[in-house]
Amino acid sequence: MSDLELTNPEVYTYWTDEKIRFADLDRLGHVNNAAFATYSESGRVDFLETLYPGCTAGTGIGWVIAKLTINYLAAAYYPGEVRIGNVVRRLGNSSVVIEQGLFCNDKCFSTIENVLVWADTENEKSRPLPNDLREKLQAYVK
Description:
The chain is α+β, with helices and mostly antiparallel strands. It has two helices and six strands. Strands 1, 2, 3, 4, 5 and 6 form a six-stranded antiparallel sheet that branches. The radius of gyration is 15 Å and the shape is globular.
């Protein structure tokens, strides 16, 4: 897996837009750390549901998040919009790594690594990625 400059918007293969809500702010008027995870979730779920509808329903077989690593690079402020870039970095037998960049006013204020596992949620066991899902994800790999 080669290194990508995740602060460069050109590396992302799928985008989601969100509004910064007043409720997303801390006492100093910055977007708070919990909102970074929420923006990541919005982008991740939009991307995965567009590719494979129903895969994030939380029942049966679908995605579960195994790891979320957030890098805080700069402050973001209300009012504003967040552009969430998504790129698939690695496909495993039952997992995927999705990297994200959060941008406001064309400036990257966070990069995020998501590790997700394709799993049987009732039995809490990983499952191999279905071939059709693997093919769809492959189209977004960099």
